[in-house]
From TrEMBL:
Entry keyword set: Membrane, Transmembrane, Transmembrane helix
The organism's taxonomic lineage, starting at the top: Bacteria, Bacillati, Actinomycetota, Actinomycetes, Kitasatosporales
Record carries keyword Transmembrane helix: yes
Region annotation (Disordered) ranges: 71-97
InterPro entries associated with the record: DUF4229
Pfam family name, one: DUF4229
Protein name, per record: DUF4229 domain-containing protein
Parts of the chain that traverse the membrane: 39-60
Length: 97
């Protein structure tokens, strides 16, 4: 795994953790509801996911672009390999028929 992928993932998890801590503090202070029914931790995790997603989209744009530049050549090589295998399989089927 490349350094760009690890860095993006760590930063994404960091934003999620920060959102979770802030939301937990707000829930503890009574500013937001602590729970929905009996799902206190799940409620805060889901809320943190919802809040951290758009923040990550905006704040980690550069890291996401860098990561995609690293991944794109590998994806293209894999795609070409799969296409070649499919073409070879199809030609074998055509010969057998």
């Amino acid at each position: 795994m490349s350094r760009a992928v690890l860095r993006y993932t760590a930063m994404r998890l960091g934003i999620f953790a920060a959102c979770f801590v802030v939301l937990a503090a707000l829930a503890y202070a009574g500013i937001i509801p602590e729970a929905v029914g009996r799902a206190n931790p799940l409620w805060l995790v889901m809320l943190a996911l919802i809040v951290s997603a758009p923040l990550s989209l905006v704040l980690l744009r550069r890291q996401r672009d860098e990561m995609s530049e690293r991944i794109a050549p590998r994806v293209e090589r894999t795609r070409q390999s799969v296409r070649q295998k499919l073409a070879a399989d199809q030609s074998r089927e055509d010969e057998a028929a």
